[in-house]
Amino acid sequence: MVLPGVDSSTKATPSEIAAHTVAALRRTVPAAIPGVMFLSGGQSEEEATVNLNAINAAACTPGTSCPWSLSFSYGRALQHSVLELWAKEPARARDAQALLAAVAAANSAASKGEYAGVHPVAGGGSLAEGFRGWRA
């Protein structure tokens, strides 16, 4: 996923991210590669989903070939809010499970370019780690 650098003051739109990502993939990834899985690093839970959806919508439009599956390998963007809810209120385990299912469903739809609506974890800040060079 092509995102502005960590020191950039530019905030790219999902369509800009999609255009640059698809262009980079078409130039560098052979069609024989079955899939590309994206990480969520540095994005909010919602941004990761919206950007994945935009990439799939741009890459797999009618009349264009999309030789790869473009999907996700998110850890933090799937679990962060779920674990936060469960840790704060263990009695809300069922709510946490329902939230996990909703976030997974949103990302599943995004992996097909079919995500629409309000994200189960709307808003929220960057999930960038405080180490490994990331700055939030």
Chain-wise SSE layout:
Layout: H1 14-28, E1 35-38, H2 45-59, E2 69-72, H3 76-88, H4 93-110
Parallel strand pairs: 1-2
Helix pairs in contact: 1-2, 2-3, 2-4, 3-4
Task: Explain what the structure shows.
With 136 residues, the chain is mainly alpha-helical. The protein is 45% helix and 6% strand. The chain has helices spanning 14-28, 45-59, 76-88, 93-110, and strands spanning 35-38, 69-72. The protein has a two-stranded parallel sheet with strand order 1-2. The chain is globular, with a radius of gyration of 16 Å.
Give me the count of strands.
2
* Percentage of residues in helical conformation: 40-55%
SSE string: HEHEHH
Rg over CA atoms: 16 Å
- Kindly name the structural category: mainly alpha
Low-confidence regions: none
The proportion of residues in beta strands is 5-15%
Strand order of the largest sheet: 1-2
> What general outline do the C-alpha atoms trace?
globular
Number of helices: 4
Task: Characterize the biggest β-sheet.
Answer: 2 strands, parallel
Mean pLDDT: 88
